[in-house]
Design a protein that fits this description.
Elements lengths: L6 H4 L21 H4 L5 E10 L4 E9 L2 E9 L7 E9 L5 E4 L5 E4 L11 E2 L2 E3 L6 H13 L7 E7 L1 H10 L7 E14 L2 E15 L6 E15 L3 H14 L1 E2 L1 H23 L3 H8 L3 H12 L4 H10 L4 E5 L6 E5 L4 E4 L5 E4 L3 H6 L6 E2 L1 E2 L2
């Protein structure tokens, strides 16, 4: 059954590291004890509104002292229908997280005369599949979203094969038609007189139809980057990874999305019937191609809470805790050693046992324990 966790991929939001869907907007002020902890680090919940649906779409945690820009972008040409754009950056520094919108792709060798490269077909942009994640960044991500990166130097490319294999087993139930590729790619480049380093996290999925060679539906499932001045990137990666892992779809909005998705699927099937030569091509294939399209798009809405947890686990300095209010897992930077959560969804991280004493007995703040 499709759940709000599965939406995380669409929100790259692509909809991200969800452990359980929240019932509504999170928020709340800190109590006096927490406010007195000026040296403690806070992460506050922020609700992002879908202006088209006029309701909260998702929430995320934003660190204190950081600014954010987050939105929901509908594009009914694409099979995922909706994606999210998220940017979280230091108010007084160069550190930044960027979660990129998801664009699906499709490759049908036998119909190129009907749908040339760059056109839209069956909910995807017609493009041949890439050989790997770095090629995807070079050909698609950088030109579309990161034109500011020039003369880059590749520092490292770590193939996260183990993560891809586990995602294939856990999220895709070892579906034989699916292939996944995951990488962590770090680059260096100069900008405005400073040297920057940036790590890109990318998971690509490829769906093949074994009965029709040359038919591939592919797209990124995870796509975000973290950057900072050269030499300082490792200091903020655990923190911003926790931000990515905190993104959670609102239950009511997700129901709205599912309704829109069902309408899109019905529209796609009607388009096939109305598509003349395309329809005849599919009819000659006994409708197997159209079934392949729809089943693949459904399969590409997997439960990405596990996917994001796996990606987060690839970064040192991230600890998984259990929220005593919700029972959900939450990933936070581990360097502070101690963590608390308020009834309003705000997190407080600190070093030293003195904070245990100050918050002990609080009705609002509860300590977080390590997840089993």
């Amino acid at each position: 059954m499709t759940t709000p966790r599965r939406l995380t991929a669409v929100l790259s939001l692509a909809f991200l590291a969800l452990t359980a869907c929240k019932g509504g907007q999170e928020g709340g002020a800190s109590n006096g004890a927490a406010m007195a902890l000026g040296k403690a680090f806070r992460m506050r919940p922020v609700a992002v509104k879908d202006s088209a649906a006029n309701q909260i779409a998702y929430t995320l945690l934003v660190p204190s002292g950081w600014n954010h820009r987050a939105s929901v972008v509908w594009n009914r040409q694409f099979a995922n229908l909706v994606s999210a754009s998220v940017e979280v950056e230091q108010a007084d520094g160069p550190g930044k997280l960027q979660v990129y919108p998801i664009v699906p792709y499709i490759w049908l060798e036998s119909t190129l005369k009907l749908f040339p490269i760059g056109s839209i077909c069956m909910g995807g942009v017609v493009q041949p599949p890439v050989a790997g994640t770095y090629e995807y960044l070079q050909k698609f991500l950088f030109p579309a979203y990161r034109a500011d990166i020039t003369d880059l130097e590749m520092i490292s490319e770590d193939s996260l094969t183990g993560i891809a294999e586990q995602v294939w087993r856990d999220a895709y139930d070892s579906e034989k038609k699916m292939r996944l590729a995951a990488s962590r790619i770090r680059i260096r480049y100069a900008k405005e007189g400073f040297s920057y380093e940036e790590t890109f996290y990318c998971l690509l999925s490829f769906a093949y139809n074994p009965n029709f060679q040359g038919n591939v539906i592919w797209r990124p499932e995870i796509l975000y980057s973290i950057r900072n001045r050269a030499g300082a990137l490792a200091k903020i990666e655990p923190l911003l990874t926790a931000v990515v892992s905190s993104i959670s779809a609102d239950r009511g909005w997700f129901s709205h999305y599912l309704s829109e998705r069902r309408e899109w699927e019905r529209g796609q099937m009607q388009s096939i019937r109305n598509a003349g030569e395309m329809s005849r091509y599919i009819s000659r294939s006994n409708d197997e191609i159209s079934t392949f399209f729809i089943s693949t798009y459904k399969a590409q809405q997997p439960s990405l809470d596990r996917i994001h947890n796996l990606f987060s686990g690839a970064i040192p300095g991230v600890e998984t805790y259990t929220n005593p209010y919700s029972g959900n897992a939450v990933q936070l930077p581990s360097e502070y050693g101690r963590a608390w959560v308020s009834s309003g969804g705000e997190y407080l991280l600190a070093k030293g046992a003195e904070y245990d004493t100050l918050l002990r007995g609080s009705l609002e703040w509860q300590p977080l324990g390590a997840a089993p």
